[in-house]
Queue: 2 jobs
Job 1
Amino acid sequence: MKMNSLGLIELTSIAAGMQAADIMLKTSEVELVLSRTICSGKYMVLIGGEVAAVQTSVDAAVNTLDFAIIDTFVIPNVHPDIFPALAGHSQVGELEALGIIESFSVASLIEGADAAVKSANVRLIEIRLAMALGGKAFCTLTGEVAAVRSAVDSGAKLIADKGLLVNKVVIAQPRKELLSEMI
């Protein structure tokens, strides 16, 4: 299956989250990327596939479970760095500048990370989603200082426009020990 699009639903209810996953998988031909509980008693369902199928699946779950929805997205033409960063498999040999974007929601963080890597020549290191984070999420990226600053600003703006930005940081010349704290 071609995965050029991602869709996510973040819910207040674990039971509704499991129901959402079922609805999404039965509605269209999509692939389940991630379905799990996240901190503070929330649930997230992340699917991939063709744009129309992902949109249809997300819409079907939202229409049925609107009472439990925290946030959703459909990202068409998702940046290919998103998949390894979500899985924790990004290979980064050396840190140049280090950018960090932190959000109150999983959905807005993934959208922000996608916007960040599409806006500048940077490499996404990791996307961490709400586990042992009090329901928050963050991503890390690296590249030249100006590119990292531009990428962080782009991603953070998208998150801030939703009112969900916790913080954004750019560290020029980070110590190499910081890489061991990631992934």
Job 2
Amino acid sequence: MKRILLLTFIVTTLLTSCFGGGKNSNPDVNKEELYKDQKGLAVVSLRRGNFQQAVKELDEAQALFNKEDPEIYLIRGAIYFGLKDYPVAESNYKRALEIKPGYAQAIFNLCGLYLKENKFDAAITECSKVVSDPLFNARESAYTTIGLAYFNKGDIASARDNYEKALQINPAFVYAHNELGRLYMATGREGEAINEFKLAISGLSTYEEAYYNLGLAYLKIDDRENACQSFAEVVRLSPNSEFGINSNRYLSTVCN
């Protein structure tokens, strides 16, 4: 789940805001529209995982219209997060916040960065700032991230509380269901875990991690038939991923 949640930094609204509105007779306006379009291309490349191209397009955008734009630093931070250069990512998110204090998307990205770096208290602090903003459009993601930080700290009660808050906002939020399932697995409640993983899969039929976790839960109750079916689905969906490789191992050792 970390991988999926942490790659949701650039939302559709940002992508839309980065593109200009077409031709205009005013050269200065045209220049700004070209700048927005170039930013938009950088976001598209980022979403595709083409990080080097995204850097190039962002540099070209800044060359067109060099101003202190917090979105530029947000996008650049996300690019360097994708490149696993976390100190550079952090410095860009913080620069975005210097220009635009309270910038919720930058705060959320910083929270995700700290989670990735296992700085759990810092992640909780940052995400707590955005969950208190009713206008922030990814509050369920922020609550789930807080829950995951608490889970990694061993605070099961706080983790569950935050997963449930995420599901109060969006009962169909598959990533919260998956994490709640992992929590139930860790506390010996396999039946409830299986239900949560099934809810995650019902909301996202290609969710390979939920299928993998479902397979592990079935193994815990010695239901090998359903476990093997779940692992086989992981391999079908994502054979070369970490979950696919691990599922293949179970298929060759437990299911043969």
